[in-house]
Fold this protein.
Amino acid sequence: MASPEQAAPASFTAPDPGFEARCRDSFSRQPAMHLIGASIAALRPGFCEVRLPHRLEVTQQHGFVHGGVLGMIADSAAGYAAYSLFPADSTVLTVEYKLNLMAPADVDELRARGQVTRSGRTLTVVAMDVIGIKAGREVHCATGIATLICIQGRPDTGR
């Protein structure tokens, strides 16, 4: 996937003008994202980028960022890309995702990008890519696809 500035994705309009605050609030309530040090770097209708600086605590035995961590940030980027297009009185859950790991994440930073391919009333399909940055160069570490469900009538306010 091209960088957010280069991308020419489908144009979406969020039905909720407060989508950005709603998405950022929801993300901030994820202890898992706090644990690994991830944050939302970019958010617009149908698109989300999650940033993760390199941290020793999320690496595997070879020093690469663990593939499960790549899955975590890709899943969140896809989820919030989809959630940005959902009504205010809804929440989002992942139904499934498939992620192909293409290069070791021996990087200084990771950027997981989710771009909605199709937004439906119930299911939304999102393309996702995980890009590593090492010494200013991009490394395409993973690519995949996710399906997310919109659960209407259940605001995303935590438990």
